[in-house]
# Entry
Amino acid sequence: MKISGFLLLAFIGSISYSQNGDQTTINFLNEIYKMEVKSKMSPDSYGGSPYLPKDFEERKLISNGREAPGFIRYNVLANQIELKVNQEDSTIITLPSNQFNSFVIDDVEYSWKNLKTEDGWKNGFFIKYYEGDDLKFYGYPELFKKEAVKSLGFVEGKPAHYRVDIKYYLSRNKSEFNSIKIKNKDFKKSLNLDGNAKVYLDDHKLKKVSDVIKFLEWYEVN
# Structure
């Protein structure tokens, strides 16, 4: 599906203009349309991918309550959103995070935040899996780089590669975000569960994000 390049770039330009009064929309559009950004992911010899998703997919950009469609991927290595006006375009636009603070992939919002966690302050795009009255459950994409292993005798070498993992954080009553694994025992301990909540987790095994969301929704109304 083709997305109107004019409408998308007008949206980008209007955000820039609203946040930088002395910069005219037309100048910004001219500049941004000429930008062909080479990925900051180094060597081509690295396997794997530093992107979420791995290729450009049609999703939504969000800024100040306004939305626009685009072909988007998140460069975890560079901590930036990359955009194509159309899938077949060779031009890749890198968006400034201070202007485009959210985007949506598979109905889940990624939002630029600076949060205090038990691992220290982290800034970047957090995945907002769940936000309730008292509880927040976020994911934080992290990039792991494994260097190449040289062949040695009968041991076959392995190429260097990237891997994106999601680290999960839970906050209660606006407290510091603590890292947590998707395991029943971790949620029992973190939330100090007893009574019906403990029985719920005894009867329902947490295996994936959707299980956690379902539990947190239940927990906040019971």
